[in-house]
Amino acid sequence: MRNISMAAAIGLTAAVVANAATAGTVLDTVKARGALVCGVGTGTAGFMLADSQGKWVGLDVDVCRAVAAALFGDAEKVKFVPLSSQQRFTALQSGEVDMLSNNTTETLTRDTALGLDFTAVTYYDGQGFLVNKKLGVKSAKELNGATVCVAPGTTTELNLADYFRANKMTFKPVVIEKVDEVRAAFFSGRCDVYTNDSSSLYATRTANVPPPAKPEDFIVLPEIISKEPLAPAVRHGDNQFADIVRWSQYAMVEAEEYGITSKNVDEMTKSDNPTIKRILGVTPGMGKALGVDEKWVYNIIKQVGNYGESFDRNVGMGSPLKIERGLNNLWTKGGLQYAPPIR
Amino acid sequence: MSDDALPGGERRQLAPPVDESGALGWMRKNQFSSWGNGITTVVLIVAVVWILSGFLDWAVFTANFTASVGSECRGGGACWALIREKYRYIFFGSFPYEQHWRPLFAVIAMLTMLVTSADRRMWNWRLLVIWGLGSFVTFLLMFGQIHIPLSLFLTIALVLGGIGMNLRKAIAEPAEMNAYRALAAIGLVGLVLRITGILPAWSLAIAPFSYVETSLWGGIPVTIILATYGLAFAFPYGVLLALGRRSNLPLIKGLCVGFIELIRGVPLISLLIMASVMLPLFLPSGTTIDKFLRAQVAVILFAGAYIAEVIRGGLQSLPKGQFEAADAMGLNYPQKTLLIILPQAIRVVIPPLINTFIGFFKDTSLVLIIGIFDFLNTANQALVDPNWAGFPGEVYLFAAFVYFIFCFSMSRYSKYLEVELNKGTRR
Asked: Beta-carbon neighbour count of residue A43 at 10 Å?
């Protein structure tokens, strides 16, 4: 057996990737490597998952691809490292990944004590309510006296109690530990309402409705009762890299606002609108200021698409999840997605 | 006295013996020998048919094999179209799609390696060749490129020389001994020179394919690599621990006992989390150790402690005379252990060892909590896809089937080995 161990040692030693401690910024390391290393989660429908070909897709994944497009002009120059929620912050702190884009809620303690910097918000999530259409409820304000299925010990449970108390309503909680059992209880009719983060409610509606009922028989009520801003994170200490991540996200939102899509981006370069000219690098200056190629936004939009396209493709109406834009609509359409001007 | 002596009327006609041959006879004997048995048989047959027909109806007759998205599957039986769509991902994970032949052949290489080394006739120097070749092919296919550093060659020379010197002492010809000494000396001197920086960093590069890093590995190759190499390394390590635990030197004994009790006292999950979350914090910033390797080492440490206890059981079952006889022959400690004690001790513990192996093959699926996509985790991932969500039964049944094939063959092998190894002691 000693022989076995030695033979295998050859293989395993090759597996040791000792990234020599390079004194320098994250940006230099990324450029020298020629690829961005992006930490993603281990699978959340619509946000990050490996498809049938093993390629990573999702709203969070598109952020990484956009940053790679801005840095290298090629959205494919990303290595995705799947991380569980326990490992994700350590992986970022230790330099195993350059950035995190895995449905992380931005909070004060994470921003400060963990030594992270959150960039722009990718998705405004929050706690919502899933109900059966047959109930005839159009708003959470009509839920007085309802039976609510909820998982215990989470902020979800506390938010729920706060919301009902604030609106002077009563409810009967059905508290069940396991998420599968909570769902089963809801779909079997044990409770009128199932409450969780709304993105998760949409995923539940897509995947877990037992036949013969259809996903369309259930609706997510418009009220969102908690704040869960999901944002990518980078390490403290390299502001330029943080800027590139942040502005890559803003560029996608800005492009949607000005109607630049992956389909019409080539025509848009001929536009007379000075803002669009600036965004697409026809009038140079923006890329230089950020420290990337002048065609950075062009590359992002051409290869990844604008925020609306990415949203629609991964979680919105073009996907099985069919999540409403809601809070994630542009500020001009009543949502919160607002990018500072690129100028 | 003949039959003729009896009056004809006294002869009783006996009923013919019950026909116990053929299918009908067998059933009469085993299934319907009494009223109670008959009723039990009928009730059980009805129950089995009822359950089986429900299952077959779901799994075969109303199953959907051809749907192109999950929503077409809804409402019917099993959605095997999901497996059809996802099987390549479930087996090979995020490995580049057009290069899936590489993990496929890597798995074939590993299985060939395992099957050939299962044959007792190979249990000699051939095992070294089989594992060397098999591991080389496997990792070359998986990585695409292998760089073997000079220091590894030197380490191997040192270890081989050292082992030879100890084991063949007083047996080998002087020329052979000199060869071992030379080998060890080259290794030792080379390593010292390498560490002091006099010898340059050189490595042998074999790079026929594009490089694929471990974060892209997934599915069945990951499960098999973690289990196979986890146990292959844990085995010699466990043997050392077991021997150390029986050592007369209090320090070695204390260390081994402490290690075994510490590892056995914590769950594998906590060890994996330590390796993946705590370890990077202790390393200097910017230095990272491959996640896959960290998980592999955690599995080795954990399995080692368990194997050590199994081996210790074998050591204790040996009569004292064996030790004394070896001493009387003038064998030194390594010779005594390797030639007399271990062969007998390991033979005794083969069944519990394979039991441990089977357990660890399945335990490797715990790596999913540190974001490594082993077979069970890629199966989980197939469930996340919103286009195909909502069919956990099919996916888990498929995964269970694949795990069963592996574990069942291991258990049959253990059975064969038990008989084979105990031929000498059987009456």
From this structure: 23
